[in-house]
UniProtKB/TrEMBL annotation:
<feature type="transmembrane region" description="Helical">
    <location>
        <begin position="97"/>
        <end position="117"/>
    </location>
</feature>
<keyword id="KW-0472">Membrane</keyword>
<keyword id="KW-1133">Transmembrane helix</keyword>
<feature type="transmembrane region" description="Helical">
    <location>
        <begin position="72"/>
        <end position="91"/>
    </location>
</feature>
<keyword id="KW-0812">Transmembrane</keyword>
<protein>
    <submittedName>
        <fullName>Uncharacterized protein</fullName>
    </submittedName>
</protein>
């Protein structure tokens, strides 16, 4: 079975879940599964959906640490620039440059905090949706047997 079809079904569920709600997304997902695979292939399809959803959940849990991506490099460069700005503020002739650098570092720090918060929220929502998909597939498999 092609994983592109499974990815497409999961992506459609996620999109539908975010726009129309759980009930409608569930109905559309199941109808897509039965139409695309037929009655004979639905069991295998749902098993693979469950497995792929669990893989995505594990992957997102690993990636939920915001300092595993570019944010760590961004934080390190901001700290370096902030230290340099404080040193510049100690010299009378470079005080203005130090103030501007420090202000820019504060603005970028706020932006980093917002980015991290948004990333945590998005990852949390995606984990919950993938968990719903895995539970839905499990429930349908139990009903089939």
């Amino acid at each position: 079975m092609n994983t592109e079809i499974i990815d497409e079904a999961i992506e459609k569920y996620v999109h539908e879940r975010m726009t129309a709600g759980r009930k409608r997304a569930t109905e559309r997902f199941l109808s897509y599964a039965y139409l695309k695979q037929g009655k004979d292939g639905v069991s295998e399809f749902l098993q693979k959906v469950r497995g792929l959803s669990n893989y995505y959940i594990d992957f997102l849990r690993v990636m939920s640490n915001p300092f595993k991506g570019p944010e760590l490099a961004w934080l390190a460069s901001m700290i370096t620039i902030a230290v340099y700005a404080v040193i510049l503020m100690g010299f009378e002739e470079d005080r203005t440059v130090g103030i501007f650098l420090f202000a820019g570092t504060l603005v970028n720090g706020w932006s980093l905090i917002r980015t991290i918060a948004r990333k945590w929220c998005d990852i949390g929502v995606m984990i919950a949706i993938y968990l719903e998909i895995a539970q839905l597939a499990e429930h349908e498999l139990e009903q089939m047997n």
